[in-house]
Design a protein that fits this description.
- With 201 residues, the chain is an alpha/beta fold.
- Helix content is 41%, strand content 20%.
- It is built from 9 helices and 9 strands.
- A 6-stranded mixed sheet has the order 1-2-3-5-7-9, sandwiched between helices. Strands 4-6-8 form a 3-stranded parallel sheet.
- α1 packs parallel to α2 and α2 runs parallel beside α3.
- It is globular.
């Protein structure tokens, strides 16, 4: 399975990307699985916090799966699927926490930026690298986080941030060793989940 789900105490759901052999690169199947999970969970009134994580501390996601064979029409369909995924995440009704470990680039960076809170591992490599690959990437999700000028610089240069760089820009809520980042995210989620459900939604 490319996506693993776990419900922990306190109404916290953990979604773990599970394509470690390709650093959780998003193919069409993984995009669909994550979008369906988000749609299902959005209707779950017992949910308090969502944590997006990975089965391997090597990467949250290295971005789109460039090895997936796609026709031109298939490529357009996958871009639309990405748009639906990001929209579902941005509209998600409870707080979201991203476990940012290892490669968090391209689509992985967009996923992290779309979450409300981010916990960074000490091996973080965070970057919006579309300009390097000829892929159009907007700054909409970054602007509220770092401001328009910094967002444009990150997009145009494709500069990759380590944990210190991401922290300096205010992108990280907490930091931890990579192997402990999910545990730190769950601890943060527990703090959040202890508050009023109506206050969180």
């Amino acid at each position: 399975m490319t996506l693993l789900r776990e419900r922990t105490e306190g109404g916290i759901e953990v979604l773990r990307l599970n394509r470690p052999d390709v650093r959780n690169a998003f193919d069409t199947a993984l995009i669909g699985a994550l979008t369906r999970a988000l749609d299902e969970l959005a209707a779950d009134d017992s949910l308090r916090v969502l944590v997006l994580s990975t089965t391997s501390p090597v990467a949250l996601s290295a971005g789109a799966d460039v090895a997936e064979p796609l026709t031109p029409e298939g490529g357009i369909a996958r871009m639309r699927a990405f748009s639906r995924l990001y929209a579902a995440l941005e509209a998600f009704p409870v707080p979201t926490v991203a476990v940012c470990v290892g490669n968090v680039v391209g689509a992985g960076a967009e996923l992290a930026a779309g979450c409300d809170l981010r916990v960074g591992g000490d091996n973080l490599k965070l970057g919006w690298v579309g300009a390097r690959l000829g892929v159009p990437v907007g700054v909409a999700r970054l602007v509220p986080l770092v401001g328009e000028a910094v967002a444009k610089e990150l997009i145009f240069t494709g500069r990759v941030l380590d944990a210190d760089g991401a922290d300096a820009l205010g992108l990280l809520t907490r930091r931890a060793p990579a192997a402990e980042a999910e545990a730190a995210a769950l601890a943060l989620a527990s703090e959040v989940a202890a508050n009023s459900p109506d206050g969180l939604r």
